[in-house]
Design a protein that fits this description.
Elements lengths: L2 E4 L2 E2 L14 E4 L5 E2 L8 E6 L18 H8 L3 E8 L2 E9 L5 E4 L9 E6 L3 E11 L4 E6 L10 E2 L10 E6 L7 E15 L5 E8 L11 E4 L3 E11 L14 E5 H12 L1
Parallel strand pairs: 5-9, 12-17
Antiparallel strand pairs: 1-17, 2-7, 3-4, 3-10, 5-10, 6-7, 6-9, 7-8, 8-11, 10-11, 13-14, 13-16, 14-15, 15-18, 16-17, 17-18
């Protein structure tokens, strides 16, 4: 019997099950204090800012599409390698930059319970960052790095409501620690539902056959115009590796970008 598996790579057994406790959407303010009905720990994050001078990864003009190689070249420097350290062990996953001044999106389960988070954007240098907010109910988290005078390359969040079955998609992430790995596929189905780490249902989820494995959590699912249409979050899997982590079976799930945009705006506010 197949089960849904989160996609963070876990160094300590037992952590793959995700978050526990009541459903709480929490934003951590600049001073580290929580807002809402509960608060998340104010972890210290470390990030690597890319050395590239590119300001943004522009999307294609209307009617224009890109091949896999072009998508990768235009997107890879905005993809982040995330390492989260907590009392339960170390988890690694993926994230991506959504603003030139250093906001980064990932899955909430990648940084769940973290005391320290390290983020490597592209192939740059390590800098300090902070957790802005976490929404366990949609499995979305927002990080912030100090970009200084550098304009970071970014990925644009697209319109997931316009996605159709059969559309080509591209996933970039860090499966098993192999940084900025590209896999390709199509949109296999729409309107799926998956469980968030706290048990709440996430709706309008995009299903894809692009290969996703532990370490892909929080990474972008990109359309053929270079826009992010979802965050890769879970897979359906019959098999499990060390620590109970699922392995690719050709059925992956991404939290839709329309949900991500709404949650990110709430967390920033």
């Amino acid at each position: 019997m197949s089960t849904r598996k989160l996609l963070a790579t876990i160094a300590a057994a037992g952590l793959i099950g995700g978050a526990s406790g009541a459903a709480i959407t929490t934003a951590v303010s600049d001073d580290g204090s929580g807002s809402g009905s509960g608060s998340a720990p104010a972890a210290t994050a470390t990030s690597t800012v890319a050395n590239t001078g590119a300001a943004a990864s522009p999307t294609a003009a209307p009617g224009t599409t890109f091949d896999a190689g072009t998508i990768y070249d235009r997107s890879k420097d905005a993809v982040a390698f995330i390492t989260s350290q907590s009392g339960q062990g170390t988890a690694t996953g993926t994230g991506f930059v959504i603003s030139k001044d250093g906001y980064i999106v990932t899955n909430a389960h990648v940084i769940d319970g973290a005391n320290t988070v390290k983020v490597k954007v592209g192939d740059g240098h390590t800098v300090t960052a902070r957790i802005v907010g976490v929404d366990q109910s949609t499995d979305v988290a927002l990080l912030k790095v100090d970009a200084g005078d550098t304009e970071l390359p970014v990925l644009q969040l697209g319109d997931s409501s316009a996605v159709e079955v059969g559309d080509p998609v591209f996933a970039i992430g860090n499966p098993y620690g192999l940084d900025r790995t590209l896999t390709t596929g199509v949109v296999s189905a729409l309107q799926r539902s998956i469980d968030a780490p706290n048990g709440f249902a996430i709706s309008n989820v995009i299903q894809t056959d692009a290969a996703l494995n532990p370490g892909n959590s929080g990474g972008p699912l990109i359309d053929d115009r270079g826009r992010v249409i979802g965050i890769n979050s879970q897979i359906e899997s019959n098999s499990a590796g060390p620590g109970g982590q699922g392995q690719n079976s050709g059925v992956g799930f991404a939290v839709p970008s329309d949900t991500v945009k709404r949650v990110v705006e709430q967390l920033r506010q």
